[in-house]
Specification:
The chain is an alpha/beta fold and about 280 residues long. It is built from 13 helices and eleven strands. The chain has helices spanning about 15-20, 25-30, 40-45, 60-65, 65-75, 85-90, 110-115, 130-145, 160-165, 180-190, 205-210, 230-235, 255-270, and strands at about 35, 50-55, 80, 100-105, 120-125, 145-150, 175-180, 195-200, 205, 220-225, 240-245. The strands form two sheets. It has a seven-stranded parallel β-sheet. It has a four-stranded mixed β-sheet with strand order 1-4-2-3. Helix 8 (about 130-145) runs parallel beside helix 9 (about 160-165) and helix 8 runs parallel beside helix 13 (about 255-270). The longest helix has 17 residues, at about 255-270. It is elongated, with a radius of gyration of 21 Å. It starts with 13 loop residues before the first helix and ends in an 11-residue tail after the last helix.
Length: about 280
């Protein structure tokens, strides 16, 4: 059982100051470290090899999540019992849950993603909102995608809001970052992947694509900016520009919802008879 007395009580201590700095992108990039918060994300980090470096926990959280503390300790992570004030000072949320971890960067080289011959990929081009980026990553994970690519024009993968919005999915599938969109599309095409650009003004309709049986092969969906979508030069790189049909009166779908629809449509087509995955493949 943990001691009833936290060892870190001052927000000015060197360890706390160093952790707090990771809320800023330039410090994250310099140290190649990022923050994870809450029991779900910390649990995923602790189960991901030696990714978790340090863990700050209040006494109450350490008692409530003793299994997470134990798993983190077994990976060699340094455990710090901290006061609620210290944990709140490190946290980037309004209501901290008592656990804040520091993790090593875990992005994957784009060449490694291509070498794995992925069947379903989400490419985030010009996505600037970290919450949307994390949510799309979560959708890609849920749909069974093998990889996510963030282009050099997209938000930082390790932004605390993006990490929280991924709800642990960041630790589940390979993610490449900083890839120019032209390089991403060319590499995926060379790997035999069909490129579909998701755009509300797209010439092709998602329902028609499904009805025509054209979505059963390896596919990468390219998703654009939340406000203005994909620029013409990016749409021109795709094999098809596809819109999600609006059957009701809604003006449009937000980025994360449209991404979920598109990714699940591909996942279903790929698992159907004649798709690039067998029906028994997970």
């Amino acid at each position: 059982m943990p001691s009833a007395t936290p060892e870190l009580i001052s927000p000015r201590s060197a360890r706390v100051v160093a952790a707090r700095r990771l809320a800023k992108r330039n410090f994250r990039g310099k140290e190649r470290l990022f923050l994870v918060e809450g029991p779900q994300a910390v649990r995923e980090a602790a189960g991901h090899g030696d990714t978790l470096v340090e863990l700050f926990a209040t006494v109450e959280a350490a008692e409530r999540y003793a299994d997470i503390i134990g798993e983190a300790r077994s990976t060699g992570a340094r455990i710090h019992l901290a006061s609620e004030q210290v944990v709140a000072d490190i946290s980037t949320t309004v209501t901290p849950q008592g656990l804040v971890g520091i993790c090593r960067f875990l992005d994957t080289p784009f060449a490694d993603i291509l070498a794995a011959r992925p069947k379903l990929v989400a490419v985030l081009a010009h996505v600037r909102d970290p919450g949307n980026a994390g949510t799309v990553l979560r959708c890609a994970d849920a749909a069974g995608a093998e990889a996510v690519v963030l282009t050099d024009a997209s938000v930082d993968l390790y932004n605390p809001k993006a990490v929280r919005a991924s709800v642990g999915s960041l630790f589940h599938l390979p993610v490449a970052v900083g890839v120019p969109v032209e390089e991403a599309v060319a590499g995926l095409k060379d790997a035999g992947v069909r490129i579909l650009a998701a755009d509300g003004a797209g010439k092709d309709d998602l329902d028609d694509e499904l009805d025509q049986g054209t979505m059963g092969g390896p596919t990468a969906w390219v998703f654009g900016n939340e406000a203005w979508g994909l620029p013409e030069e990016t749409r021109a790189l795709a094999d098809a520009v596809v819109r999600v049909p609006i059957h009701g009166k809604a003006e449009s779908l937000n980025l994360a919802t449209a991404a979920a629809v598109c990714l699940y449509a591909s996942a279903r087509a790929q698992r159907a008879s004649g798709g690039c995955r067998s029906v028994t493949e997970s």
